[in-house]
Design brief:
- This protein has 456 residues and is mainly α.
- Helix content is 66%, strand content 6%.
- The chain is built from 24 helices and six strands.
- Strands 1-2-3 form a three-stranded mixed sheet. The chain has a three-stranded mixed sheet with strand order 4-5-6.
- Helix 20 packs across helix 23 and helix 21 packs antiparallel against helix 22.
- It is globular and about 85 Å long.
Length: 456
């Protein structure tokens, strides 16, 4: 683009801006609008045709949708809100203030208001909250001709028609049939002969991440959602599932880096918000780091006698922290995609024990001759043995703690790299000085006395 939408908006060149908008794809246009100041977003948006405006609006994040609504006239807001799909409408309502949400819902037609209220009645992170109640269902006794007629008649308002649930007279889910199978089958064939009865489905209160993982793993275009009596109440489409997974991955990555999730686009977050999301973790890790300071203080006399011990502290605690972070990252990822569960704890710990032994032995074997050459064999033995012990301990901690957190109902990502690293820093120093005292027992009698309180 020679001139950006932002520049044309600032120049108030509406004719050129209108031409630019017509040439820009909906997703690209949504991205451009999101970069505009909140008080200017409505200017180009008002120039869009009705259908295109809805497409662009639904492509925006809920935070930007709210900002855009603030700049539109009340009647345009009601029109946009009414035309949105119920599940997208619920996402927006979760972002706006309660007073605004109530006003928006009051302007909906009765049927749309009821559909929205139904979704809002489910728990925030449940499959029911992210499903769409707008779907086309078929009866198993229908002929293909009758089924296609129903798709043509009601499919325009449905979330998807590519995967069609099949129910009985009581709305009990019996199976699914694909639009492709209907289109290619003879008109006289029956739906029951085309449907798959080994259908995947979830209940309304299942966690939406679990439902989304099922869509991903089973390569589904849509997943039927049923109530506790197995009656069909909605479908989750693959595009909604991918948005759920994106949010979950963002949350895990943020916490793995020691930051609370922003829950909004970076450029939309204020400086105070960015600082607040990081401050709590910095304070927590700072308090945890006091353990490391206390351990060093307890061995102050030891360090004064053998100053060379201090030279290797950064190497050892960094190696331990990195080993623990590697293990926790692998296990958290396996947990998030359902590859391991708490019952797999013995197997995971056993595997990571062997990994820790191999990695520790490799690093110890490299460190021993190098340290022995520059110092002496005793120091080489201390550093080599410490590397083996710290890597084994850090790997076990990094593997076990996320599984234990999941068992306790905590987010495994909370026990992520920063927490594991800080824990291993303090305990790794205890291991280091314990081995040093054992190897240099004659020279470090005072250090042995200082170690006893920590070892009970």
């Amino acid at each position: 683009m020679a001139t950006t939408i932002a520049e044309l908006t600032e120049q108030e060149d509406l004719e050129t801006l209108r031409e630019q908008l017509e040439e820009t794809g909906a997703l690209d246009l949504a991205e451009e609008l999101a970069r505009l100041p909140a008080d200017r977003m409505a200017v180009p948006f008002r120039l869009l045709a009705k259908d295109r405006a809805l497409e662009v609006f639904e492509a925006l994040d809920p935070v930007h949708q709210q900002q855009l609504l603030d700049g539109l006239r009340e009647e345009r807001v009601r029109e946009l809100f009414t035309e949105m799909d119920p599940d997208d409408r619920v996402r927006l309502l979760d972002e706006v203030p309660a007073k605004v949400a109530k006003r928006l819902q009051s302007g909906l037609p009765a049927s749309e208001r009821e559909a929205t209220a139904t979704l809002l009645g489910y728990p925030a992170e449940s499959a029911g909250r992210v499903m769409s109640p707008e779907y086309v269902s078929l009866r198993s006794s229908m002929s293909v001709a009758d089924a296609m007629a129903k798709v043509r008649r009601t499919g325009e308002d449905a979330e998807t028609v590519y995967t069609l649930p099949v129910t009985d007279d009581r709305r009990m889910l019996m199976g699914v049939v694909s639009l492709r199978d209907l289109v290619t089958a003879p008109a006289s064939a029956r739906v029951r002969d085309l449907m798959r009865d080994d259908v995947h489905s979830v209940e309304v209160d299942v966690d939406q991440e679990e439902a989304s993982r099922l869509i991903q793993e089973a390569d589904l275009l849509a997943l039927p959602v049923v109530d506790h009596e197995q009656r069909l109440v909605g479908v989750i489409t693959v595009d909604d599932a991918m948005e759920v997974l994106e949010r979950e991955v963002t949350e895990d990555v943020s916490r793995a880096g020691g930051v609370e999730p922003l829950e909004q686009p970076y450029l939309s977050a204020g400086v105070l918000t960015l600082a607040r999301k990081r401050a709590a973790w910095l304070l927590l890790l700072g308090v945890a780091a006091v353990l490391t300071v206390n351990v060093l203080g307890a061995f102050e006399d030891t360090l004064e006698q053998v100053v060379a011990l201090a030279l290797f502290i950064p190497l050892l605690i960094d190696t331990g922290g990195n080993s623990g972070a590697q293990a926790s990252t692998v296990v958290i990822r396996a947990l998030s995609v359902g590859e391991v569960r708490f019952r797999d704890l013995p197997r995971v710990v056993g595997r990571e024990l062997l990994v820790g032994v191999l990695l520790g032995a490799m690093l110890g074997a490299i460190a021993f001759p190098v340290v022995s050459f520059f110092f002496d064999p005793q120091f080489g033995a201390i550093i080599g043995l410490t590397l083996v012990a710290i890597v084994i301990w850090a790997t076990l901690a990094g593997a076990a703690l996320p599984l234990l957190a999941a068992r306790l109902g905590l987010d495994p990502a909370v026990l992520s790299a920063p927490i594991i690293t800080t824990l291993v820093d303090a305990t790794g120093l205890l291991i280091y000085f314990g081995i040093a005292v054992a190897v240099l027992s004659d020279e470090l009698a005072a250090g042995a006395a200082a170690l006893l309180p920590f070892l009970g």
